[in-house]
């Protein structure tokens, strides 16, 4: 194994459920919201619509990865590794032949698959670290990162912290420059949060520790980052989480995707990055932060425009 090379991420692709719905379309929504919300006004949460898958998740994964490879002009036979990331509950619902079906449909004949989970919505940023490690092997040239999250039961979409939507996101990691370069990353754990006993202090501590590890490696602080791509929690929750971590609300880019797609689990940071690039454009020499938070975890990745 060689030292970590410069890693570029590019060819981001996102696929959302074909069914566009409002929260109020969920059966018994008013009761579900009252049970979760402690009388908060849903209209202030920043959500408009969400998307729901109408077919097997494998079809959406194939569509998304195919778009990434097409954009990158990479042949399926030249992909060496694929890293899937999903939240804990979805891992249990994937069929045993999920990877074989996806690889076969895409023609990934030389590709070794792996799945990363057990870190809730932080799983895809943990997968990003793993993908970087894979490229330290000189025989590995192209790694596809795929995040997928979906909610089969509508009653589970309405939570106290987010409205869940369905999505798959993917990108290609290679040596050298991409749309962005991965500079550093960090994942932290809050054991109190894993037991459901987290506090303001424990959440703040894990966030600040992870940010210090990722940013400190480049002598940066949160205020130096151009834009932050966070988890698409309800707007008040997302703003609160950013504030306790030392991130300004003007740095966040999530309102548009939150309004249109809701919280798509561990896919959010890629969705927000791709949306920002479409709306504004990733710029060379600017720094960006991919960020995910979940009960018991906080993860971040420092990125630079290439």
Automatic annotation (TrEMBL):
Cited SUPFAM superfamilies: Thiolase-like (SSF53901)
Species of origin: Streptomyces drozdowiczii
Protein name: Beta-ketoacyl-[acyl-carrier-protein] synthase III N-terminal domain-containing protein
Keywords, in A-Z order: Cytoplasm
Domain Beta-ketoacyl-[acyl-carrier-protein] synthase III N-terminal as annotated: residue spans: 120-189
Domain of life: Bacteria
Matches recorded under InterPro entries: ACP_syn_III_N, Thiolase-like
Alphabetized PANTHER family for the sequence: 3-OXOACYL-[ACYL-CARRIER-PROTEIN] SYNTHASE 3 (PTHR34069), BETA-KETOACYL-[ACYL-CARRIER-PROTEIN] SYNTHASE III (PTHR34069:SF2)
Gene3D superfamilies in alphabetical order: 3.40.47.10
């Amino acid at each position: 194994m060689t030292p970590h090379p410069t890693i570029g991420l590019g060819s981001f692709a996102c696929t959302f459920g074909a069914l566009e719905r409002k929260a109020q379309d969920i059966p018994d929504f008013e009761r579900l919201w009252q049970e979760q919300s402690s009388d908060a006004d849903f209209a202030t949460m920043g959500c408009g619509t969400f998307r729901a898958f109408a077919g097997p998740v494998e079809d959406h994964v194939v569509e998304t990865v195919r778009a990434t490879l097409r954009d990158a002009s990479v042949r399926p036979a030249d992909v060496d590794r694929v890293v899937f990331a999903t939240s804990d509950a979805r891992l249990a619902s994937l069929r045993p032949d999920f990877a074989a079906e996806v690889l076969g449909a895409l023609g990934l004949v030389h590709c070794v698959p792996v799945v990363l989970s057990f870190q809730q919505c932080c799983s895809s940023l943990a997968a990003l670290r793993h993908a970087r490690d894979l490229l330290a092997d000189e025989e590995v040239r192209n790694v596809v990162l795929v995040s997928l999250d979906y909610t089969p039961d509508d009653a589970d979409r309405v939570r106290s912290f987010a409205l869940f939507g369905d999505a798959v996101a993917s990108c290609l990691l290679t040596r050298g420059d991409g749309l962005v370069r991965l500079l550093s990353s960090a994942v932290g754990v809050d054991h109190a949060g894993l037991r459901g006993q987290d506090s303001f202090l424990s959440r703040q501590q894990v966030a600040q520790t992870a940010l210090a590890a990722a940013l400190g490696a480049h002598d940066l602080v949160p205020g130096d980052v151009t834009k932050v791509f966070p988890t698409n929690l309800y707007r008040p929750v997302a703003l609160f989480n950013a504030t306790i971590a030392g991130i300004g609300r003007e740095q966040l880019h999530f309102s548009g995707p939150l309004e249109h797609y809701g919280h798509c689990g561990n896919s959010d940071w890629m969705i927000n990055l791709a949306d920002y690039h479409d709306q504004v454009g990733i710029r060379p020499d600017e720094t960006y932060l991919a960020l995910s938070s979940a009960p018991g975890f906080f993860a971040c990745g420092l990125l630079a425009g290439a």
